[in-house]
Amino acid sequence: MREILFKAKRLDNGECVDGFYCCIGPVGQEKHYIIPMYASAFYGIEVDPSTVCQYTGLKDKNGKRIFEGDNVYDPHENSIYTVEWNENNAIFQMAHDWRRRSVETAYYCEIIGNIYDGEGGD
Q1: Beta strands in the chain (DSSP E)
Q2: DSSP alpha helix (H) spans, the chain
Q3: Residues 6 or more apart whose Cβ sits within 8 Å of residue 55
Q4: Is the C or the N end of the chain the one with fewer CB within 10 Å?
Q5: Is there a contact between 108 and 75 (Cβ–Cβ < 8 Å)?
Q6: pTM for this structure?
Q7: pLDDT at 105
Q8: What's the pLDDT tens digit per position in 15-63?
């Protein structure tokens, strides 16, 4: 059974937080929260909904969780890929220019940033 986790940028300080995602409020006035895994009661951190990314269920070569939107460095190809969701095939994949490949090969890659921080881009 895989973990269903998300990460997003906090509204208060712009740092990333990961945990469980929830959206509360009337339509058009929703507030988006990440509830950290360490929270013992409802403790939500308000996040920017445009930065919410889902965990792929995989880790990089350093044991860091790989999320949608992460930029990963592939040492075999000397290339930087971005992890994305493929709606048509319902899978996470790694994308670089026109190339697409399974995120399952990311175990030997290293996360170097993400698309929201502008780190590790081409």
Answers
A1: 6-9, 16-24, 31-36, 45-46, 53-59, 65-67, 70-74, 79-86, 91-96, 99-102, 110-114
A2: none
A3: 3, 4, 5, 6, 7, 18, 65, 66, 67, 68
A4: N
A5: yes
A6: 0.87
A7: 87
A8: 999 999 999 999 989 999 999 988 766 788 999 999 999 999 999 999 9
